[in-house]
Design brief:
Elements lengths: L2 H18 L4 H8 L17 E6 L2 H17 L4 E6 L2 H7 L7 E4 L5 H11 L3 E5 L5 H9 L4 E6 L13 H6 L5 E4 L2 H8 L7 E3 L4 H10 L5 H7 L4 E7 L1 H13 L4 E6 L4 H10 L4 E2 H4 L9 E3 L6 H4 L5 E4 L12 H4 L5 E3 L7 H9 L2 E3 L3 H13 L1 H17 L3 H11 L6
Parallel strand pairs: 1-2, 1-4, 2-3, 4-5, 5-6, 6-7, 8-9, 8-12, 9-11, 10-11, 12-13, 13-14
Helix pairs in contact: 1-2, 3-4, 3-9, 3-19, 5-6, 11-17
Length: 415
């Protein structure tokens, strides 16, 4: 696929999103957010250093966040511009105080790339995990702006490593340096001729979840709901995950459950509440003086990473869908056993968590019941599993420091 076909692909992609926006709220936000071209709102003195960090969505932001926050401490005068591809990231973090400006990334085109770079004038660009946009990356290279891939992960299934992936491979030399999560990614890149400027740094998400855990503050209503009961926190759940949980919830009224659905649109929340009879929304607790419910449904965004702390056992959703399990590290960092569905082979952290004994994959409601019974009946096993999860997270910390050390060593933010 040459640049002509790439441009056609982008045009068709945008047309598809516009069509979808007629009935899909996220697609509508995606279109509306790009109607006005971003305007940089801070002064550009000659000595101002600007870091532009781009993330696909919220998960990638959490990976890049410890890097820019560490850099801000090292270089207090630096300015941060943050862009998102997805509404899932932008809508949650549009008021992030660690950035001087937050935008949607305009559609990839030569004109937009040139215009964006002229507006931001970045000294350094951080591209998080993935998001390979040809014209932006090409423009960085042409204008000698260093661009680092942060927490990159490469798999054999990606277009770079296929017979039809020539155009994708063309983008890789545009990067100044690759910070990849694992050795397998380094080997795959070497196999297509990218064998320099690569550091196996690990995943910056380890640093982020440790930071969140260390800064933990109680949520009074959650603390009151939990009381002295046994607690299971199920985060980022989809319909398939909830289907696996329903019978166990009904059969165990003495256990309290906190369920944080991945999708919090009103219609989905209504369906989840109907599934778990007698449940209560978190927003209802704000106006209810007393609740006898044993199931609490979280109907907001931004609380999940703290909720796992209240659990005796955690469950992370997504593992019964094609896209796979969500962020298991958010749960593991608190030293609690982490359960998830069978689809986790794309996620090295879930694979390694399973190997070290901190994570347990279940493949059915019956399997879930057997695993939970085993953990409840054996306090030592419960503790050992939780400690294995926590140790795995802490043993893999440090990726952010490797990246910031490189930036310091190469003097990328010093004139």
């Amino acid at each position: 696929m040459g640049t002509f076909l790439y441009t056609i692909f982008i045009s068709l992609y945008v047309a598809g999103i516009k069509l979808l926006s007629c009935w899909n709220a996220k697609a509508d936000l995606w279109i509306k957010g790009r109607k006005t071209f971003p305007a940089v709102t801070f002064s550009k003195e000659l000595d101002t250093k600007i870091i532009w960090m781009h993330c696909a969505s919220l998960g990638e932001f959490e990976q890049g966040r410890p890097v820019i926050e560490h850099l801000k401490k090292l270089y207090p005068a630096v300015k941060i511009v943050l862009t998102f591809f997805s509404p899932s990231g932008y809508e949650v973090q549009k008021n992030y105080t660690g950035a001087d400006a937050v935008f949607y990334l305009p559609i990839d085109s030569k004109a937009n790339a040139d215009k964006m770079i002229a507006a931001i004038n970045p000294s350094l660009v951080l591209w998080v995990k993935y998001e390979y946009w040809f014209y932006y990356l090409q423009a960085f290279k042409q204008q000698n702006i260093p661009v680092l891939l942060v927490s990159g992960i490469f798999r054999n299934s990606q277009p770079f490593f296929k017979w039809y992936g020539a155009s994708w491979k063309r983008m890789l030399p545009f990067f100044t340096h690759f910070f990849v999560q694992d050795k397998a990614s380094e080997i795959l890149l070497a196999g297509i001729g990218i064998d320099e400027n690569i550091t196996v740094s690990g995943d910056t998400r380890f640093d982020r979840v440790i930071e969140i855990a260390e800064q933990f503050e109680h949520i009074p209503l959650i603390q009151e709901f939990c009381g002295d009961s046994k607690i299971i926190v199920a985060g980022s759940t989809w319909e398939d995950d909830e289907a696996e949980l329903i019978h166990y919830v009904k059969a165990n009224p003495a256990i309290k459950f906190i369920i944080a659905p991945h999708e919090i649109e009103a219609e989905n929340l209504k369906d989840v509440k109907k599934e778990f009879v007698g449940s209560v929304f978190y927003s209802e607790l704000l106006t209810t003086t007393q609740s006898t419910a044993n199931v609490l449904i979280i109907d907001n965004v931004g609380m999940l990473s703290r909720l796992y702390c209240y659990a005796d056992i955690t469950y992370v959703g997504g593992g019964f869908g094609d896209d796979g399990v969500h962020n298991v590290l958010e749960a593991a960092v608190y030293g609690k056993p982490v359960l998830y569905g069978p689809e986790f082979e794309k996620f090295v952290e879930a694979i390694e968590l399973t190997k070290c004994g901190g994570g347990i994959s279940i493949d059915s409601a019956l399997d879930l019941e057997e695993v939970l019974t085993r953990l409840w009946d054996d306090e030592t096993l419960l503790q050992i599993t939780g400690e294995a999860a926590k140790n795995y997270v802490h043993n893999n910390a440090g990726a952010s420091k490797k990246i910031t050390a490189f930036i310091q060593e190469k003097r990328l933010l010093i004139s």
